[in-house]
Amino acid sequence: MRIALFVTCLADTLFPEAAKATVRLLERLGHEVVFPAGQTCCGQMHVNTGYQAEALKLVRRHVRVFDPYDVIVTPSGSCAGSVRHQHATVARRAGDERLAEEAGQVGRRTYELSELLVDVLGVTDVGAYYPHRVTYHPTCHSLRMVGVGDRPLRLLRAVRGLELVELPEAGQCCGFGGTFAVKNADVSTAMLADKMRHVLATGAEVCTAGDASCLMHIGGGLSRLRTGVRTVHLAEILASTETGGTAAAPGITTAGNSSGPAHTGEKP
Amino acid sequence: MTAARRTFLGMPALAPRGVGHLRGEEPFPAAARRALADTQLRRNLGHATATIRAKSGAVIGEVPDWQELRAAGSAVKAAAMARLPELLEQLEAAVTAAGGTVHWAADAAEANRIVTGLVRATGQDRVIKVKSMATQEIGLNEALEEAGITPVETDLAELIVQLGDDRPSHILVPAIHRNRAEIREIFLRAMPGVDPALRGEPAALAGAARAYLRRTFLETKVAISGANFAVAETGTLAVVESEGNGRMCLTLPETLITVMGIEKVIPSWQDLEVFLQLLPRASTGERMNPYTSMWTGVTPGDGPQSFHLVLLDNGRTAVLADEIGRQALHCIRCSACLNVCPVYERTGGHAYGSVYPGPIGAVLSPQLTGVEDNASLPYASSLCGACFDACPVKIDIPSILVHLRARHVEEQRERRKVPTAEAATMAAAAYVMDHPGLYAAAQRAARLSRLAGRRGRGLPPPLSGWTAARDLPEPPPQTFRDWWEKRGSTDEQP
Fold first, then answer.
1. Which residues 6+ apart lie within 8 Å of B207 measured at CB?
2. pLDDT at B455 over 80
3. What is the CATH code of the structural domain delimited by A124-239?
4. Are B367 and B328 in contact (CB under 8 A)?
């Protein structure tokens, strides 16, 4: 299948390993991945901070860039949610019904990674190998806006060598919320503290999720406290194989965390 | 149809300043910061919200058609709001026919004036009250006290708040921020005739309140209530409660005055079937609330012989005028959104400033007062969406929050000659992101900043909020875009 990658501005700029893993995974499964170069940002930050007029340009760009593709994938529940649930609203608010209609169509063809794998490609065992103790945080937008359900967990359970540990109070927000983490930094930190407490309670070495943004938040806290737990995007776990050694392991690395490269997926 | 000649009467009025409790004294982040530091508050709220969540989740799980009920509740409310003027006139006619008197109050000040005047006319100087959000909203207790009338709250939690000279912090459980030790202390300090040997067990505390309230119920001739629902076709008012204090207030006194927000009207008796299933399960986690009291006007020889209904606008018509925001009027005050909100759970209700806290407060208060008078509230959410899932009438709170943020930005833009720093940054970011060449250059610049030395600590405000507790990611040596280009297979496009 020919699949267009909507990389998201965050993964493109700060977390390219998650995006590269998405490409490698889909190519390993026998699909063709294309990267429309005109893409930049879906505009979610603008919409969620109140800047809809500015977001309108980005919605228009996104729709124009992705309109030619039948299947679009993004390694982000949040950006998938924005494209599917916000773009048409932004267009409609600006009185552009035609754009709203087109945005709706692009939205319907846009899948979060776990949705694409399970629903469109019909696969739960992607042949991955990842010998680590892992806990999964269902990000709010993947859980409640996109509704990925247990798809990520089904994918993780099929990964060889992976020990999956259930995260207590998993459905509670980590406190990121985009500019919320800056505008309401104290409340955000209080939420993060509880999320980290639950992650640490699992005894996991890796906390994974389907959104680089939430992982940046959780990982930033775990790194600051030198907890010895790292965050890795779901795509990187699914892209790791026994022989391929594809996942660049430190995942969401942080400036304060100068640990060397960890698991490479290769056998010693 | 002939084209009607219309006179534009202006936008509907907002809730006025200087009366009532819809505006806080400081922005949410400042108030929240103080609340977060109160460890007793954090513990009390964490325990209470987790308990209610579990209880409510269990009884909702028993209802196979919960989602259909939610959809029905949402549809009934939307239909009622679509013909609100007609339903209110129908309600007025039905209540009047049944021997009641209907008063129309455009705002808090007018409602307080009407109620104070009605109490004065009875010659009484004390009233008993059933817990009511509408009377909290308009600051009725203060208005009564100013007129020399003593209001006595009869809901246990509301009584705790009143005796503690405190403010409610939850719609349903106003004293949720207090634990039993604190309540015992308040009773010992402020409850008339309390036993000095009062112990801190819940049963002993409830017993003390019961003894105090029972005397008051029997000696007071005027009661003031709110209403959960008003049935337009029959003129019937309904109050649901758990303690029986409502039943006492609604049946014992000679005069009953009910203050009701105009959005509480529902078309028919049959519609109650939907809401009486939704409300208790979503709010207290009960299959059925212990007391459902309904009355229609005056029944000779039975119950209050004088009944007044005050219909309160106080900004509600302005909410109705907003196509996206008007959903907030569907709220049945169950507080399910508060109990599941990760922000509310950590800050409590006082931080929101308004009597309507939590997610529903964050969308209702700014609409009633005008967004600029509560501009920080739409941002008091991580947009996690738990409130939308929990709402028994499916109010899309996250979408309203996002909409109100846009209204705030638009109002700022109109008011200011010079854009805010945030607005300038957002505009610049959008411009760059709409030009892929500039975007790639900006990415490269971010990458180069790696060389500028150790990062991730001590960013300047407003970003310092992030680095106070979190490390920043280190920009990678290569963006995805660069990596892909080197692979040589980009789909070229404008």
1. none
2. no
3. 3.40.50
4. yes
Region A145-161: what's the mean pLDDT? 98
Query: What is the 8-class DSSP label of residue B151?
Result: E
Mutate to test the interface with A, among B407, B463, B480, B483 (most CBs of A within 10 A): B480
Distances B45 to B11, B29, B48, B177, B343 between C-alpha atoms, Å: 39, 18, 5, 6, 11
- On chain B, the residues whose CB falls within 8 A of the CB of A9 are 433, 439
Report how far residue B151's alpha carbon sits from residue B149's, in angstroms, rounded to the nearest whole number.
6
Longest dimension (CA), chain A: 60
Of residues A13, A51, A89, nearest to B446 (C-beta): A13
Residues 6+ apart with CB under 8 A from B55: B284, B285
Residue B10's contacts (CB-CB under 8 Å, 6 or more residues apart) are none
Sheet of A72-74: strand order equals A32-34, A2-5, A72-74, A110-112
- Give the number of other Cβ atoms within 10 Å of residue B332's Cβ: 24
pLDDT at B11: 80
Residue A208: DSSP 8-state: E
Domains of chain B: 28-317 (3.40.50.10420), 433-487 (no CATH)
Domain segments of chain A as ranges = 2-119, 124-239
- CB atoms B342 and A185 under 8 Å: no
Tokens of B453: 């030395």
Residue B148 reports pLDDT greater than 90: yes
C-alpha to C-alpha distance for B296 and B98, rounded to whole angstroms? 6
pLDDT higher than threshold 50 for residue B215: yes
Q: How far apart are CA B115 and CA A115, in angstroms?
A: 58
Q: Is B399 on the interface with A (CB under 8 A)?
A: yes
pLDDT in the model for residue B5? 65
What is the pLDDT confidence band of residue B4, given thresholds at 50, 70 and 90? low
Return phi, psi of residue B335, to 5°: 70, 20
CA angle B56, B368, B309 (to 5 degrees): 80
Residue count (chain B): 494
A241, two tokens:
């194989």
